[in-house]
Write a structure and sequence with these properties.
This protein is of the alpha+beta class and 210 residues long. The chain folds into three domains: 37 residues, no CATH class; 127 residues, Electron Transport, Fmn-binding Protein, Chain A (Pnp Oxidase, Chain A, Roll); 37 residues. The protein has six helices and seven strands; from the N terminus they run αααββββαββαβα. Strands 2-1-5-6-7-4-3 form a seven-stranded antiparallel sheet. Strand 1 and strand 2 form a beta hairpin. The longest helix has 34 residues. The protein is extended and about 90 Å long. 17% of the residues are buried.
Amino acid sequence: MNMHAFASDVAFTPTIKAIQARKGSRQSYARVEERGGWQSAITPDLAAFIEMQTSVFLSTANGDGQPYIQHRGGPAGFLRVLDEKTIGFADFLGNKQFITQGNLADNPRAFLFLIDYMTRQRIKIWGTARVVEDDPELTARLMPQDYRARPEQVILLTASAWDANCPQHIPQRFEAADVAAALGERDRRIQHLEQEIARLKGISGAAAKE
């Protein structure tokens, strides 16, 4: 049961609020809380951002509180928004350490960090997560089409709060596929211009001979 007064309380503990007060930022965050604070439901815009990602980081902690971060990747759409609270993805066969699964068995709290370097956007999602084994229908639903990976199980994350960060200090980087597409479009444009130049030269040469 969520006993937080504000969605952001999942991150802003009393200790953190005391530090904010000491360092001068508590008042501005209090105003955010008064206006409704962070959202807990996944909006259509957030859902679109989530399903565009090809690389994300999932954070868990074991029963002793030891944190762990694991990368998850796949084609755009491998992360699926199932409803306004739930994000799911097929968990592909890997090195069989099962640290994330073991952590979630002891401590369901989880955190999803998404960063888009091209647009310099980052989203933080707090919640709980669970592993679903032996559900072929759900696995097939979440498995990206024609993706060469072997799904082992499914991870479902239930969001409790999310926040979008400013782009400060995020380096701008581009996906190789996006760069290739841009260069391909550039080459097609150059080819078109060269053909147009040749056509105009032909017209000019013919006119000069008349």
